[in-house]
Specification:
By secondary structure, the protein is an alpha+beta fold. It is built from eleven helices and 14 strands.
């Protein structure tokens, strides 16, 4: 990844005021190995977030984020000016919503392969301790790049080549802090078109129905494992899942054409997609919980060391784990 421009501004909450104070930086930062390492950490954290939504810009005016971004792209506005205007817009939106808190607002324009991205995120600093050269222990402040609650990533290459597309931007939509996320999204003029959770549910429904056509239980397990492995690998590399590539991966196991199956049925599937990791696990594991009981096991064990009788509703564990046996020996 190559950093083209990077800058950090501050939104600070004062105990004596009901509004935030915006402190814009006067200039961009000089790219360095440390900043590149930070960007890599942020990218990994962002890619692993399961609660992402996708969308496009709302209709633009002559005084909003989309317009400023276009000016920056065309060279009519420098990065410092573009981000300072965005900072002020974000401050106004947070003030109006009464959603205070503050933090550091980081803007990074970077190139990854042939694709250019803009990452905007709000970070907080925390205090830890470190050992000095004199072997004393002292406090030190650090940016917490492992936690992202407010962040948006714009695929600028896709936006410029296909401005009518509906997935060139993504943003985090956490369960906690939903209100702040909404304000952040509105300040940037983002309009949601799909979510990872919805896309994953549709994909898994298609995979299940595709597998139902296969008479062999073993073949069904292989297909689900192939889908799971491919999607997990794409997510780990920060890439999206395409129908053609997924089909090619499944065909390695001798399956029929998954793409043809999907295209001939009424699946409201947004492709390419970024599936939700937690939901994908259901392809290869069975889990269930009730009062005082929590079960989870690999799907490959069903029919061998674990058997289920659907008529009686009983689950029989043939090969009881040794550690569990040890705990039960005195009963």
């Amino acid at each position: 990844m190559t950093i083209k421009n990077i800058i950090v501004h501050q939104l600070e909450q004062s105990s004596e005021s009901s509004t935030l104070t915006a402190t814009p930086a006067g200039q961009t930062l000089q790219s360095s190995p440390a900043l590149e390492a930070m960007l890599d950490d942020l990218q990994q954290t962002y890619n692993k977030k399961a609660d992402k939504c996708f969308g496009q810009f709302q209709p633009s005016s002559t005084d909003d984020f989309r317009h400023w971004l276009a000016l920056y792209q065309e060279g009519g506005l420098d990065f410092t000016g573009f981000t300072a205007r965005t900072l002020e817009k974000l401050k106004e939106s947070l003030d109006q919503a009464g959603a205070l808190g503050g933090g550091y607002v980081l803007f990074i324009d970077f190139q990854q392969g042939l694709t250019r991205h803009l990452l905007i995120c709000m970070l907080n600093h925390h205090t830890s301790v470190t050992v000095t050269k004199e072997l004393t222990i002292t406090d030190c402040a650090y940016l917490d790049t492992g936690r992202l609650s407010l962040a948006c990533r714009i695929n600028m290459s896709e936006w410029l080549s296909n401005p009518t597309g509906n997935r060139y931007l993504s943003f985090i939509r956490p369960r906690a802090g939903r209100r702040l996320s909404d304000v952040f999204q509105q300040a940037l003029g983002c309009m949601e078109t799909s979510s990872s959770k919805e896309d994953t549910h549709t994909l898994m429904s298609a995979v299940q129905e595709f597998c139902d056509q296969t008479p062999s239980e073993q073949a069904r397990k292989v297909v689900k494992r192939q889908v799971y492995d491919y999607c997990q690998n794409q997510l780990d590399e920060g890439k999206e899942v395409s129908l053609s590539a997924l089909t090619g991966h499944i065909q390695e196991s001798g399956s029929d054409d998954f793409a043809r199956f999907v295209n001939t049925r009424d699946y409201d599937m947004t492709l390419p997609m970024t599936p939700e990791k937690r939901s994908l696990t259901q392809l290869v594991r069975y889990t269930g919980r009730s009062k005082g009981l929590n079960l989870s096991f690999d799907a490959e064990l069903l029919g061998s060391s674990i058997r289920y009788d659907r008529h009686s509703g009983q689950l029989v564990i043939v090969d009881v784990p040794e550690k569990l046996k040890e705990q039960l020996k005195d009963l």
